[in-house]
Amino acid sequence: MLRIGAIVLGVSDLPRAVRFWAGALGYLISEAEERADWVVLVPEDGPGTPLVLTLNSSTAEERPRVHLDLFTDGPAEQAAEITRLVTIGGAFVGWDRRPGEPDFAVLADTEGNRFCVVDTA
After folding, report:
1. 7-55 and 68-119 share one fold
2. Which of 21, 47, 60, 118, CA to CA, is 20 to 30 A from 67?
3. Could you tell me which residue ranges the VOC domain spans (predicted)?
4. Hey, where are the domains in the chain?
5. Kindly report the CA angle at 95 between 93 and 101, in degrees rounded to 5?
6. 9-64: per-residue pLDDT in tens?
7. pTM for the complete prediction?
8. What fold is seen in the domain 68-119?
9. d(CA 86, CA 92)
10. Looking at the domain that runs over 7-55, which CATH code has it been given?
């Protein structure tokens, strides 16, 4: 059976993207996988899906077909995480397809890659 081995994001400023995503997820650089054109980030506390950041000259799509959903355990944690992510370089994205009472907020990383912060409570 197939399983997701890694999530790969294309970025144009690799050091900036590494700082953002390592800070956002509490991930560390996998020294064994670091190269000039890509970096593998792994969970600090052990098992989990690696995030690969690869140097890419294309720009992020305004309405991407694929994005990450980052889960939180309630509205207070969601609000705190959104604030923290914006503080480390993320940006809130106005999204015209949001339902009336959304359980998610759309953000973008330092490269414009979209992701959602979801209240799962």
Report:
1. yes
2. 47
3. 3-120
4. 7-55, 68-119
5. 115
6. 999 999 999 999 999 999 999 977 667 889 999 999 888 999 999 998 888 777 77
7. 0.84
8. 2,3-Dihydroxybiphenyl 1,2-Dioxygenase; domain 1 (3.10.180)
9. 7
10. 3.10.180.10
Phi then psi dihedrals of residue 14, to 5 deg: -60, -50
Which residues touch 110 (CB under 8 Å, ≥6 apart)? 11, 13, 16, 17, 20, 89, 90
Say how far apart CA 40 and CA 50 lie, in whole Å: 7
